[in-house]
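Message: I would value a second opinion on how I read folds in token form. Give me a protein, with the fold worked out from its sequence. Write it directly below this note and I will take it from there.
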Amino acid sequence: MTEEPLPQFGTCMDGIDYVDRVSVYGIAINDAGQALVCRRTLDRIVLPGGGVDSDEDLLQALHREIAEETGHRVTSERFLFSARQYHANRGRKPAANKLCHFYVVDLKFDPDIEKEDDHEPVWLPPDRLAHSMTFESHAWALNRAVSEHQRNG
């Protein structure tokens, strides 16, 4: 049996060398059916998460990134799926073809966590996010997670 290739999102632009970058993202849906996302500069909206550091495993990175970006602690996580995302405009960081691992997470707000200033966590209805997400892979993952959430109640 062969594995299906991972979905690839974004555009590979000619003349740009892309590095592979492993990343993790959490999808949290509250009792009102809203998803937790982060507003960034220039009105970018992303799922909380980011790159896995060399001394971390996927779950350590997931917990760290969500705490840093949202002020929440992950109380449980479940792997959903993976996809790839080209990302060329990364400031001083090299262009990357990110290997994105998506998890459904349960969260608890922790007022003692110092959150990063450049992330504004907001709970929004997923239907308002469908065309607002910065990355196609995030929109795809959120839509799949919301469909699963609705099926499973």
Notes: The first strand starts at residue 8 and ends at 9. DSSP finds three helices and eight strands in the chain. The two ends are 32 Å apart (CA to CA).
